[in-house]
Design brief:
It is a single chain. This protein is of the alpha/beta class. It has helices spanning 57-60, 94-100, 131-139; strands at residues 76-79, 91-92, 110-113, 123-126, 128-129, 143-146. Strands 1-3-5 form a three-stranded parallel sheet. The radius of gyration is 33 Å and the shape is elongated.
């Protein structure tokens, strides 16, 4: 096979439409632009969202307020009440939370919140704790340990 013998597949290339070359070509007179109006003129360019002079949708809707913080850290939430499924004195790590089905994945850092009650001691390791959650775990005789979040692959 030689490079000078290569050609595109049949039907994959189309000839350019030549407009304004007489009525016999099928694209004469108005050159496929219809009759009169803004869109038939040369140099026509409509701005995005233009609705023919009517008040555009973006201006008809109420003003959007606030903003979205793109640097926000999203946490996987675990409530203290959910930790009661672990036996007394055991160590609760992010990996064990995934295995137990309390957290879906380790894609987000884990934060322990204070909803619910715990009545047996546990050693809980997570990325963040609310002050109330920390107090509840320690009141039950357990320990709290904050571990550094290591971003994991999805």
């Amino acid at each position: 096979m030689r490079q000078d013998k290569l050609s595109p597949a049949l039907g994959s290339k189309r000839r350019r439409k030549r407009v304004g070359r007489g009525d016999g070509s099928g694209h004469g007179t108005y050159s496929g632009r219809g009759c009169k109006g803004q869109k038939s003129r040369s140099g026509y360019k409509m701005s995005r969202g233009f609705e023919g002079g009517q008040l555009p949708l973006i201006r008809r809707l109420p003003q959007k307020r606030g903003f979205t913080n793109i640097f926000r850290t999203e946490y996987s939430i675990v409530n203290v009440g959910k930790l009661s499924i672990f036996e007394a004195g055991s160590e609760v790590t992010p990996e064990r939370l995934v295995v137990a089905g309390v957290v879906k994945s380790l894609r987000h850092p884990i934060k322990v919140l204070a909803e619910g009650d715990i009545n047996h001691p546990l050693v809980v390791k997570a990325n963040k704790f609310s002050a109330a959650a920390k107090a509840k775990i320690e009141a039950a005789g357990g320990e709290v340990e904050e571990v550094e979040y290591a971003a994991r692959a999805r």
